Every structure is written in C-alpha cells, then in structure tokens.
Amino acid sequence: MSRDDDATNERDASSGQDARATETAHADATRAVVAARSDGGPPDTAEIRELAAAAGYAVVGEVTQRRREDPTYDLGRGKAEELMRLAADADAEAVIYDGGLSPGQTFSLGDLLPTGTAVVDRPRLALELFADAADSRAADRQLELARLCYELPRLREAVARDASEDVRLQPEGDSRVLDVEKRIESAERALDEIADERAARRAERRAAGFDLVALAGYTNAGKSTLARRLADEVDDPNFDGEASAPPAERADTAAGDPADDAGALAVADRPFETLSSTTRRATVGGRRTLLTDTVGFLDGLPHESVRSFRATIDAIRAADCALLVVDASDDPGGLRRKLRASLSAIESTDGPVIPVLSKADEVDADGLAAAVEAYETAVADLDPRDAPVADALRSPIPVSARDESGLADLADAVADALPTATATVEVPNGGDAQAALSWAYDRSVVTDVEYAGETIAVDLAGRPDVVAEAERRLRGAGSPP
Ligand SMILES: Nc1nc2c(ncn2[C@@H]2O[C@H](COP(=O)(O)OP(=O)(O)OP(=O)(O)O)[C@@H](O)[C@H]2O)c(=O)[nH]1
Ligand SMILES: [Mg+2]
C-alpha cells in the first residue's frame, strides 16, 4: 500500500449528509468506505480518514450513524445495509470501521458486505500502519504480539463458525488456536528479555551520569521534531523544523543498540512515523540527558495492543522526567480526546511529567488560551483511577520546535524536575585529585572550582547517586594512601 496517497484532502467537508460516495480514488490505492457510529455527538471521521490515507486507502465514501451499539453489526441493521449498498456502488475493496468490532460483528458485517470486501476496524488499521513502519527487533516483536492478540479471538470465532459441534463448544482446543497461543507466549518472552535488557541499559546510563528524559504523547503530536530540536548534535544538516527533512545517520552512539535507534529522524506528517524508541544526547538546563523519543499513542486501541507496546510505556514510566507532548493546534475536542488516551495509556510514572503544548507557532494568543483551557478541563475530568499520572500535572509549557519559542522555559522546567543533589568538597591538590575531578566533570555539573594554595574547593550538582560517588572519589583522591 502506498503511504503518500492523500485521500484525506479529498474529504467533502460541505456535505452534511451521513452517507455519501466521493469519486476520488487514487489509481493504485485500496478503495475503502469509512463507517462510524457514535452514541454521543455526531461521529467525527477526520482522524480515521487520516489513518486510512496513511495506510494507503483511498476513501471513496462514508456512512455514519448516531445510536447505541447494535450487537450484530455495531451499526443498526438498516445502516449496515446502507453501508453494504454504498460499498457495492463505490466498488470498495474494504470497509474501514472507526471503532473496535467484536469477532462476531466482524464476521456478520463481512457476510453482509459484497464478497471479498475486507472489514478493517480501528485496531486492525493501526496494526497495518505499524506493519508499514516497524523498523527494529523490538518493534517487530511488539507488532507480532499485538497482531496475535488481535487475531486470537477472531480465529476462535472462525473455528467455532465452521467446525463440528464438539469443536464449536471448545474452539480453544483447535490446533490453530493452540499454535497462536504458543506464539503469543513466545513473543511475550522475547519482549520480556528486551525489557530486561533495556532496564539494564537504563541503569548503566544513569551510572554514567545521564538523566533519562522521555518524550511521550499522541501520534503526530510533534515528539520527534521536538526531540531533534533539543538534541545536542543536530546531525541532519537539512533539518530546519520542517517535515521534509530526509533521514540521516546518527553520529551519537551513546544509545547502544542500533536497532533501538532507527527511524526517528525522518519526521513526516503521518501517524506512527516513529515506531521504536530512539535515544539521543541532549544538554538541557546544563544537565546531560539522554532523550528518548517514543511511539505515539492512538485512541481506541484494545488494552492488549497498548500492552504490546510496553517498551514505549516502560521508557516513559522509568524516565527521570517525561515530557507529555500535546498538539496546541488541535481543536479543543480533539486535544481533550488525545490527552485522555495518552494519560490512560501511561497510567503512572516514576518521575515527574511535564506537559508541553507543541506547535505553538500554529495558533494565535486566543488559540493558545483555548488549548490551555482544553488541557486543564481534560485533566480535571479524568478519573484518577484511570490515569493516576494526571494527579500531579503542572500547567503546560507552550513551545514551538519550528520557531524555537518556549524551548528555554522547557529546559528550565526539565532541569528543575530532575533529581538533583549538590555538594561542596575541599580536597588537597595532589594524588589523584585531578583524575577524580575529571570523573566529576564527565558525570555532573561542576559549578565552581577554586584553587587555594594546597587545596581545591569543588562545587558540584547532578544526579544524587553520581554526586555522592564524586564526593567519595574526591575525598579518597585527596587523602594520603
Ligand atoms: N507548525 C509546526 N509543526 C510542527 C512542529 N513540530 C512538529 N510539527 C509537525 O507535526 C508533524 C508531526 O511531527 P512529528 O515530530 O513527526 O510527530 P510525532 O509526535 O513524533 O509523531 P509520531 O512519531 O507519528 O508519533 C510533522 O509534520 C511536523 O513537521 C512545530 O513546532 N510547529
Ligand atoms: Mg515521532
């Protein structure tokens, strides 16, 4: 499927009717009809259309309905039949459903639609997007697990539908089902190993004096662009904050595992641009940090899918400080929805979370005030049991990675939020004092060094464990053997 198809632009914004066909298909894209139901306000199909376009579908029609869920089709029967007729008239190869369908609903809808029409619900569409972009061992394993967890209940349904009476009663005994269950176990084990390796790597990085900062947020919020702005070496000479910059090799090798590092330099305006966490060095407020850019969140994914992407969630939870990136240019409703999805996926963190309103250059003062208000109401409305992290959130810092506004405020906030200890050590100038001092320079912020006769007075600040070790080394170096 091609990624660059721009079916979203083809949306007929003037149309108020809830079923329509638009003759706009790209020659080689998969023709699809979008269907959406909402039991609240009118269904908004903007995001699902964007996701569909990014996955290579040309949206040629749309059916929406406001009503409660129907157990058979999710849509009501009459609306489902309207969808069937539209799919036939528009010659659609797929129906993209904005929501999660149960296995039974997926099959019922498939039976109703013209033969060969694929039923792609929101979680499956997300899996297709992930599959397009998976770029590392961890991403592959995460994708595999999410896919298997999605397939398992559907496979059980399929087995039950076309099997004999005894299998129908116990579809989990079928060998295909057992095989998928085994593969799920093995993917989980592999991900556990990757999680352990990453935890060990975090410990090493902290011991080397780095503060770990993670960027989290909804897909397309501007995380990667901000990460590149904050990074020490902007290794891509073409990078100017625009989406069109080509990918480049990283010069920084601090991150270790190269598979961990692929993919975040190309910043394009599509969902799931980043599919594995990427880490690079950044000096923020004088502190040496390792900045991890993570996979974006998406609303409406089942819990297993979110759990499969736990490498991302782990990186955010275990960070010394997490930046929660929220797109200020979203309309207030979208901002609230995306923020809720992000905060519930994160649940809780070990360190503080700093909310950031990105793309501030895209809004005027009123727009920014509206974004702040939408942010505050979303946080206030959240049930703390769903998102304990929302409890301790401060007000968001507006920034623009494009014009660099707000970046200094953000750096100050990060430096304030990081765990910090200070020490003043006086040591005789001799022995290994210079070696101990250079150890301290490498791992902490040495704020002052005064040479007074035979002694050196050193002021330093940094991670508490590193400052304690620097103090021990300096005192040890100064004392006679
Ligand atoms: N105007 C403006 N656009 C921005 C800014 N930051 C990012 N963008 C654009 O927003 C889009 C998404 O940016 P990314 O940095 O890829 O977003 P992301 O959160 O990493 O997205 P995923 O990796 O897909 O989760 C791109 O088209 C960027 O050029 C900004 O400060 N101002
Ligand atoms: Mg990204």
3D structure, described in words:
By secondary structure, the protein is α/β, with parallel strands linked by helices. It has three domains: 7-130, GTPase HflX, N-terminal domain (Rossmann fold), CATH 3.40.50.11060; 190-416, Rossmann fold (3-Layer(aba) Sandwich); 421-478, no CATH class. It has 15 helices and 14 strands. It has a six-stranded mixed beta sheet, sandwiched between helices. Helix 1 packs parallel to helix 4, helix 4 runs antiparallel to helix 5 (137-162) and helix 11 crosses helix 12 (365-381). The N and C termini lie far apart (70 Å).
Write the SSE topology.
Blueprint: E1 19-21, E2 30-38, H1 46-54, E3 57-66, H2 77-89, E4 94-97, H3 103-112, E5 118-121, H4 122-133, H5 137-162, H6 165-169, H7 175-207, E6 211-217, H8 223-230, E7 278-284, E8 287-293, H9 303-308, H10 310-318, E9 321-327, H11 332-346, E10 353-358, H12 365-381, E11 397-398, H13 407-417, E12 421-428, H14 433-443, E13 445-452, E14 455-462, H15 464-478
Parallel strand pairs: 2-3, 2-4, 4-5, 6-8, 6-9, 9-10, 10-11
Antiparallel strand pairs: 1-3, 7-8, 12-14, 13-14
Helix pairs in contact: 1-4, 3-5, 4-5, 5-7, 11-12, 14-15
The structure holds guanosine-5'-triphosphate and magnesium ion.
Low-confidence segments, given as residue ranges, are 1-25, 234-266
Report the CATH topology name of the largest domain. Rossmann fold
**What's the name of the CATH homologous superfamily of the largest domain?**
P-loop containing nucleotide triphosphate hydrolases
User: In CATH, what is the class of the largest domain?
Assistant: Alpha Beta
- Which structural category do the helix and sheet elements fall into? alpha/beta
- Secondary-structure element order, N to C: EEHEHEHEHHHHEHEEHHEHEHEHEHEEH
What portion of the residues fall into strands of 2 or more residues? 15-25%
Q: Which percent bin holds the helix content?
A: 40-55%
Total DSSP E strands: 14
How are strands sequenced across the largest beta sheet? 7-8-6-9-10-11
What would the principal axes of the Cα set say about the shape?
elongated
Radius of gyration: 26 Å
Q: Catalogue the ligands.
A: guanosine-5'-triphosphate, magnesium ion
Number of helices: 15
Second rung of CATH, namely the architecture of the largest domain: 3-Layer(aba) Sandwich
Largest sheet: 6 strands, mixed
GO molecular function: GTP binding; metal ion binding
Pfam families: GTP-bdg_N (PF13167), GTP_EFTU (PF00009)
Keywords: Coiled coil, GTP-binding, Magnesium, Metal-binding, Nucleotide-binding
Protein name: GTPase
